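hey
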């Protein structure tokens, strides 16, 4: 179970870092808003998958 927790933490840190990078891009003048929205949607989907995996691990439904 420790390995799974470490993996989830790593995935969450990646999402957090990517969110910060996208935020910086969005604040730049001339940023392509459609591209930023697409990237944010992908991140939201990734975050949902992490949340679901965390829930499954926490509730023991993976056994």
């Amino acid at each position: 179970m420790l390995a799974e927790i470490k993996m989830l933490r790593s995935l969450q840190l990646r999402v957090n870092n990517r969110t910060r990078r996208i935020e910086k891009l969005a604040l730049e003048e001339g940023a392509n808003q459609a591209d930023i929205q697409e990237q944010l949607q992908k991140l939201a989907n990734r975050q949902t998958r992490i949340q679901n995996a965390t829930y499954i691990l926490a509730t023991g439904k993976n056994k």
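The chain has one domain: 11-59. The chain is about 85% helix and 0% strand.
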